[in-house]
Amino acid sequence: MNRAGPAWLFLAPALLVLGVFFLLPVLAGLALSLTDYDLYALADLHNLRFIGLANYWALLHRPLFWAALGHTLYFVVVGVPLSLLVSLGTALLLNSSAARMKPLFRTILFAPVVTTVVAVAVIWRYLFNTQYGVVDFVLVHMGLPPIDWLGDPHWSMPMIILFAVWKNFGYNMIILLAGLQAIPAELYEAARIDGASTWRQFRHITLPALSPILVMVGILTVSGYFQLFAEPYVITQGGPLQSTVSVLYLMYEDGFRWWNMGTASAVAFLLFLVMFAATAVIWRFGETRGHAA
Amino acid sequence: MMKRGFIKCCLNTAIGVFATLLLAACAEHSPGVTLEFWTIGPEGDAVAQLLPAFERAHPGIHVRVQRIPLTAAHEKLLTAYAGGSLPDLVQIGNTWIAEFAALHALEPLQARVERSAVVRKSDYFAGAWTPNRVDGVLYGIPWYVDTRLLFYRMDLLREAGFDAPPRTWAEWQAQMDAIRAKSHGQRWGALLPTNEYDQLLALALQQHVPLLRDGGRYGNFESAGFKRALAFYVGLFKRGDVPPYTNVQVTNPWQSFARGDFVFYLSGPWNIGEFRRRLPASRQPEWSTAQLPGPNGPGDSVTYGSSLVIPRSSQHQRAAWTLIEYLSRPEVQVRFYELLGDLPARRSAWEDPALKDDAKLKAFRDQLVHMRTAPQVPEWEQIVNMMQEVAARAIAGELTIDQATAQMDARADTILTKRRWVLERQESHEFRNGHGDNAHVPETTRHSVASPAPSGR
Amino acid sequence: MSRAVKPLLVNGALMAGASLALFPLFWMLAVSFMQPGEANSLPPPMLPLHPTLDNYRELFAHAGMGRYFANSLLISTAITLLSLVCNTLAGYAFAKLPFAGRERWFGVLVGALVIPAQVAMLPLFLLLKYVGLVNTYWAVILPAMASVFGIFLVRQYARGIPGELLEAARVDGAGELRIFVQVVLPLLKPILATLAVFTFLTAWNDFMWPLIALTGQQHYTLPVGLASLSREHVQDSGLMMAGAVVTVVPVLLLFLALQRYYLRGLLLGSVKG
Question: Fewer CB within 10 Å: N-end or C-end of chain B?
């Protein structure tokens, strides 16, 4: 009993920080999203109106919001599986008994993860330049037509997806690698004696063993990818033709460029809802798969 | 022992960091006055070269210059305003003055001008002075004037069979068609980045039709005049005279221009300096400037330019004004022109041989008397960005001219919703309170937010 | 057949992957030493013809990179130290100190992880504006002083501390704070190192919030300064790459030096407790 006092003292600093700088703003954000807080209100609070759900209603009728949501979903739906595939592939390679110099390769493959998004996004902008970019140079040399990555609205998002895969695959690679190493070798041993092919071993031993990790990693990656912002901000400035405007980019523009903070808060909460739903779906999917297996 | 060592080490470092933070905080209050001066784009480097003389003359004032990139300037300034961290002196695009005045962010300057021996209204181009007044209150002093006109390659134009730059839209189009044909598609007629609104805005203002109507309450993009301008602009891309590139794709327009990828470039005076600096010597005699072609003859262009404003929040307004006066002196304006190519806002500076005898400036001199101002409503920057977004979709073939203008009007009306409400409320207050007695109206609403601004006229 | 081919395939694939992972970084380094305009030619040059340090000189002399670097260092260090204190105290309490509703509180905290930080950004800006902290280092440091992830990490690790150790100290009459400092902290040292590396790298690389909260150039961190620079210096690829090098290399080196701690944190953090 007498220890409850100190416990709260120990908790106080962290809870204070989280309460004041996170919980309070989140609640305030909910309130803000029900008002028309904008430049006029910033100048004079008399110009602030409570408008109920009008911001949400307006967003649902705004093509750019749906477009931004579409771009973000595109980024998530293509980017996440692709990232996981690359992560899984490299993890399998690193786990292979045939691989040499594993620590070195592991470090190199992981290096992009620790780099600064803004800095490497700047690099990307040059690599994918249509005139002098290395990527198009290679494409042309391979006999392929050059791609206008920065100018063609159909290719801008794939370029950003490639960027995200390059930047992020190492993270999940490490986690999956740990998962692979935890699978008992005897399982494979037994399968080999039964004459199972490598593919069958992968299907029936590796994947089931990894599936809880894959679900968890999937959830983390999905919520990370929903927060797409710095890449379009630095590489494309949302263009061309707004094809890389993500939900967060929209929130930034509405909120911190045009100072329609009411609208921007509504955007943020809608994003939260979508993320929550997506995470829940993957979670349920993982659960059912888990029971079936 | 080791445990203690570790914690002690942690604590020491923590204390060290705090000390550094404190020091950093204290450094802001050094003796004398440190003037924070924010500039936009290349002006920062040029002004840094003008400051040593100023600081010698005013030993009590130390100026710290910051440059904000042009493409992020508006959002940076607004964020600084919103965060209460505007500096002491700001270079501001004169199309933004209405917005910042509405926010009550700027200090009125009329009284200082009346006492000043340096800043005299009569010596400024009228077009440069007007945008600084919002509802009869003066908020900024023009620093340089700016407009958009044609930069072009004389040699390539001759090669295509023309001795003189175009004067009308029709001539301009014909010349670009010829350039395309003669070079077998190797050259473009012009580079007009599709994510920059200046070019379309300049063409639109040539139509002498307001871009907003009813005192800035609604969009007026469906007017016949704007549709003509948009159709001409979009047509340039459709005909293949202009590539649908953004400025993200063309990272180095100067290199491109020097190589002859395109012949015309629609840009502003600062590029005189950039062209002189960035183009190779062999190309210098081959480029020139020309007044913007109009629908039926040399046309108007848009009034831009930067002004110097003092934020209300500044603690050093007197020192800031001293610097404004210094930068406004005709000889300093000439020097500034020499450093960068920015055009002096004062007539007397133009009498200097450096400006008078510069052939590349003649077109600017002509253009300066043919200028039109963009609508002065706080939402303008957002509206004009929206206009360009929609125009880019028309260029890409997603929208017809009629669809595009309808969309622009619909979106402009949405953006202006709050402004209409504020105006209405202000009017009903004034009505209720009778004449002369509107003490209950919040001050902001009354005197700046909602002036029925003259749109485009 | 497969016996001989497999090592070749596996190592070849690893080699290819490693080259793709490293290539952008290698290219960045090469271009940062090139003359102006040199990178804008075909075929794209891979090595500088006449290596020069001009880009770096320009960066520090005119573009203010030194200031950004110092800001980044200051902010990241402050965040690391302060958040270490807050998170360790709280994580330990959640693991070892009994109090009413401990598990429920912790559940709430972990539940809060589903809320993206951006939801809080707009009101947080207004909050800091009204207390006058926008455009100060504190605007970035204060909100980062505690993190659910950090608390979680410490709690996971601290649960392994044997309760008898603490009880013994209590029997000896030691106060809770003394127990924490003398008994617990030394045991937590490895996880503290992990948390420190993690926090530092996250703070160093953070972009969106500093972009919003630091409005004046004198407070810019490296990513914000670099993004700002890239808005008007796109044509100077050498300069931009030098900026990228200055931003990326410190964290890469830090990672290389403390890889062990970093990877452990990554694994610990991803195992749901």
Answer: N
Q: Is residue A287 part of a domain?
A: yes
Instruction: Please answer yes or no on whether B17 and C74 come within 8 Å at the CB atom.
Output: yes
CB-CB under 8 Å, B84 with C132: yes
Shortest Cα–Cα distance, A154 to chain C (Å):
23
- Does the pLDDT of residue C217 top 90, yes or no? no
The boundaries of the domain holding residue B392 are: 149-302+379-413
pLDDT lower than 50: segments of chain B:
1-19, 21-30, 435-457
Count of structural domains within chain A: 1
How far is C38 from chain A, CA to nearest CA, in Å? 11
Picking from C100, C115, C180, the nearest residue to A26 by CB comes out as C115
CB contacts < 8 A (B, C): 87
Judged against a pLDDT cut of 70, whether residue A180 lies above it is answered with yes
Q: Is B418 within 8 Å of A36 when comparing Cβ atoms?
A: yes
Residue C139, pLDDT > 70, answer yes
Q: Domain for residue B210, yes or no? A: yes
Binding partners of C (≥3 Cβ pairs within 8 A): A, B
Do B165 and B267 fall into the same domain? yes
Domain C25-270 has CATH 1.10.3210.10: no
pLDDT at A3: 53
Residue A19 domain-assigned (yes or no): no
The two structure tokens encoding residue B16: 């060290």
Q: Give chain B's domain count.
A: 3
Three-state secondary structure of chain C = CHHHHHHHHHHHHHHHHHHHHHHHHHHHHHHHCCCCCCCCCCCCCCCCCCCCCHHHHHHHHCCCHHHHHHHHHHHHHHHHHHHHHHHHHHHHHHHHCCCCCHHHHHHHHHHHHHCCCHHHHHHHHHHHHHCCCCCCHHHHHHHHCCCHHHHHHHHHHHCCCCHHHHHHHHHCCCCHHHHHHHHHHHHHHHHHHHHHHHHHHHHHHCCHHHHHHCCCHHHCCHHHHHHHHHHHCCCCHHHHHHHHHHHHHHHHHHHHHHHHHHHHHHHHHHCCC
Query: Which domain covers residue A172, as residue numbers?
Result: 27-42+49-292
Residues B218 and B291 in one domain: yes
Residue B126 sits in the same domain as residue B261: no
Residue A235, domain member (yes or no): yes
Task: Assess if residue B10 is contained within a domain.
Answer: no
User: Is there a contact between A268 and C119 if contact means CB atoms under 8 Å apart?
Assistant: yes
What is the distance in angstroms between the Cα of A213 and the nearest Cα belonging to chain C? 8
* B8: its two tokens: 């002690």
CATH of residue A158's domain is 1.10.3720.10
Residue B449 to residue A40, Cβ atoms within 8 A:
yes
